[in-house]
């Protein structure tokens, strides 16, 4: 075996100021399970600057898509980490796929579960925009986009228009349903619920919660964030307080959002209201939105 193989296959030894540190690939200690279009990428980027965190950059999709490849494959997808680091991976699909919770439980019933959620109405619109672009339907006319949205959103029930509950864009935001499934396997204490809307406005507050939950020093503070004036943009993060090295996210990519009619907002609001209420009662927290 040559040196290169040794590096790739197993571990690297680094002589650090604190002596010998061993970098290894380990199964995750914490998983960011969703929700889609709620700021998962921003949250992972922000927490990654913490020296006690080692995060997998791409979405692994092990528990939903690649489960058949086995746990060793999963481990091989993890980033190198020292014993002093928490290993995190994120795949937003995990929250809504009913197979995943039990599989994660079978891997490690003590794993920490991170969930970031935003208002399901804005989340749905974001996912709709993303889906349209994925299907190469690049509609720049915001009114035409809104008409498409409405065509997908409503179904005709004997002359009455009702919201199509099983459109994935809508269903993904019925958080109570998905979280209930996870709670069959994990106690509430295994979860942290991050407010995705507040992550944009007051990122340091949400990062404080997350660092506490992960039991790492709260070194990411208000001084790390550079607020932007972009309409839907996330704040940028300084790699160290006072540092000029800044990382920004380019999440929305300037895609136009449909011009949704106020009456449609009202319908969506009515639709989500009871689910939201049930959700915050379930997790025993004040409503985020
Ligand atoms: C964070 O890392 C430092 C040094 O790398 C270590 O001394 C400390 O115990 C770690 N903290 C946690 C909570 O793992
Ligand atoms: C349609 O709406 C009317 C008036 O709101 C209501 O009385 C009726 O029960 C609804 N029908 C169905 C099939 O939901
Ligand atoms: C949604 O519901 C309709 C009837 O209520 C059904 O025909 C359709 O297959 C469902 N679609 C999905 C994706 O579940």
Helix content: 25-40%
Round the mean pLDDT to the nearest integer and report it: 90
Q: Note the run of SSEs as H and E.
A: HEEEHEHEEHEHHEEHHEHHEEEH
Distance between the termini: 57 Å
In CATH's first tier, which class applies? Alpha Beta
Strand order of the largest sheet: 4-6-3-7-10
Keywords: Disulfide bond, Glycoprotein, Signal, Transferase
Binding site for 3'-phosphoadenylyl sulfate: 37-41, 118, 126, 253-257
Disulfide bonds: 236-248
Active site: 37
Write the layout of secondary structure elements.
Blueprint: H1 3-9, E1 12-16, E2 19-25, E3 30-34, H2 40-48, E4 53-55, H3 71-76, E5 80-81, E6 86-90, H4 100-107, E7 112-117, H5 120-134, H6 142-153, E8 154-157, E9 160-163, H7 168-171, H8 175-183, E10 191-195, H9 196-201, H10 203-213, E11 225-226, E12 236-238, E13 246-247, H11 262-282
Parallel strand pairs: 3-6, 3-7, 4-6, 7-10
Antiparallel strand pairs: 1-2, 2-5, 8-9, 11-12, 12-13
Bound molecules: 2-acetamido-2-deoxy-beta-D-glucopyranose (3 copies).
